[in-house]
Amino acid sequence: MRRSSAPVFLIGPMGAGKSTVGRRLAARLGLEFVDCDATLEARTGVDIPRIFDIEGEEGFREREGRLLDELTAREGIVLATGGGAVLREANRRMLGARGRVVYLRADVDTQLARVRDSDRPLLRTDDPRARLEALAAERNPLYESIADVTVDTGSGSMDAVVEAIMEQLERIAP
User: Fold this and answer.
1) Domain 8-165: assigned CATH number
2) CA 139 to CA 11: how far, in whole Å?
3) Which of 43, 121, 125, 127 has its CA 20 to 30 A from that of 136?
4) E strand residue ranges, 8-125
5) Residue 43 class from Cβ within 10 Å (0-12 exposed, 13-18 middle, 19+ buried)?
């Protein structure tokens, strides 16, 4: 594949593998990997659950939007976004206009298996499955609306996922 400095933005639900795939994809493309949530945590000095506790989801989304504006303006990166980054129209516009958007799709069973031991603020509920199903109903159409590439991450290795992304990116390369 021809090397490009055009950024690649990974979107999808929690547990889809954005961070894991992002690191491997960045290495294959010779680009820098950036995780939006990890960057936000490093800058604030607290983790995402704490930001939710202090500022609520709306406060978190404000911070996330400002950081996305900064990060999506960079070239030469693979950016793993948070699962809810697509909720704001301005974020969707930025992602779609500034780089190649890869939607990592994962079904609810896959998500549950991958995030069951984590402290995800949106899963602080008696019924995490129902919560993930509700999030999917709301967010999946948003992911689909801006994706240049869509890859399922529920079966096969993460290396196979990276390979599938590479093949699809090659087809849409400018």
Assistant:
1) 3.40.50.300
2) 10
3) 43
4) 8-11, 32-35, 77-80, 100-105
5) exposed
Q: Return phi, psi of residue 10, to 5°.
A: -95, 125
Measured CA to CA, the distance from residue 131 to residue 44 in angstroms comes to: 27
What is the CA angle 15-85-30, rounded to 5?
A: 70
Place of tokens 């974020």: 91
Task: Convert the pLDDT of each residue in 137-154 to its tens digit.
Answer: 999 999 999 999 999 998
Q: Are strands 77-80 and 8-11 parallel, antiparallel or unpaired?
A: parallel
The 3-state DSSP composition of the chain as helix, strand, coil percent (nearest 5) reads: 60, 15, 30
In this predicted model, what pLDDT tens digit does every residue of 9-48 receive, in sequence order? Answer: 999 998 899 999 999 999 999 999 999 999 999 999 999 8
Cα 123 to Cα 38, 47, 104, 118, 135: the distances in Å are 19, 15, 20, 9, 10
Q: DSSP of 104-118, one letter per residue?
A: EE--HHHHHHHHTTS
Q: Are 79 and 12 in contact (CB under 8 A)?
A: no
The candidate with the shortest Cα–Cα distance to 151, out of 133, 136, 166, 172, is 166
Q: Pick the closest to residue 15 from 115, 138, 161, 159 (CA basis).
A: 115
Q: DSSP class of residue 150?
A: E
CB neighbours of 140 closer than 8 A, spacing ≥ 6?
A: 13, 105
